[in-house]
Description:
Elements: H1 14-30, H2 34-45, H3 66-76, H4 83-88, E1 89-91, E2 97-99, H5 102-110, H6 115-137, H7 143-166, H8 172-175, H9 177-182, H10 184-187, H11 197-213, H12 215-223, H13 242-245, H14 254-265, H15 284-291
Antiparallel strand pairs: 1-2
Helix pairs in contact: 1-6, 2-11, 2-12, 6-7, 6-15, 7-11
Amino acid sequence: MAVEAAIPVSAANPVRTALAGTIRQAASATGVNFGYLVAAAKIESNLNPSAAAPSSSARGLYQFIEQTWLGTVKEAGSYFGYNRYADAITRTPSGRYEVSDPAMRNEILQLRKDPAANAAMAGVLTRSNGSKLTSNLGRRPSEGELYIAHFLGAGGASRLIAQAETNPQANAAAMFPRAAAANRSIFYANDGTPRTASQVYATLTGRYATAARSEDARSMIAAAGVAPPTGGTLAALSTSTMAQASAYAPEASEAESRQRGIAERNARFSFHAMFQTGDRAEPVSAAVRELWANGSTSSTAGIASDVQKPAVAAPAAPAASAGQSQPLDLFSDRFGAYRS
Length: 340
């Protein structure tokens, strides 16, 4: 997480009120609980759209590193009007995302500073993690468990949650040695004793709960005209479309105008219906790719016939090999080194 000064929250603060509207718009568009996105932004950037991690490429409200950002824009950007950017990104056989034109690459990466774009992409990846956890756990994840997926990836979160429930005394550091090495304060007690699966579960869900209860988060939720959260599970997409949510957004930027235009054109489209709930292999990029797969499941049966698929070809999954690139991860560095 980048350490940046937060903008004070108050009902009279138009900047923060506008940011609340932007996050709510992204939540409505992607089917992710608004309160969750606010709390995640509190943890990642202290609600600062300009936040920059001092030791990584992580930038913006949700601290996307470069590869995760390029991959997400490639896979999902067309749904939010970023066709030009999505088309400029290519996926190499090794799994990396590249842009041949340096100026265009810089423009795409600079888009992370746009809170509307950053929040929309965060919602897409959060929804992907939620779908994966639902499949693996056989139930909806709590918002704290979604944050575990943010921290360990969907596969790692599924393992930790399962162990916390069935084998709570399991050594979590042994389960996730590389993550533990990068996050000693999470996986080890002050005296160096490795924490158990149940203890790490409690630490991570507690971190989320603290952010969700913070005055900044609660004030931002209130600024968007939303009642304070009372539940702990991932909320389904409401019937409000992104066009309806635009009433809570600030004066439209270019990026928001693109999003709003898509929403108005596809007003009957429930974005979350496109997310398949079957089992998916990591990496996150593959999971996101399956979200736009041509094959239908019962969860996609109700999509309106006038909704077009994005003009982005789903890249083939790379063959597994010793030289295969590391999978994309949610928001920041692979092992959470900036969330100690």
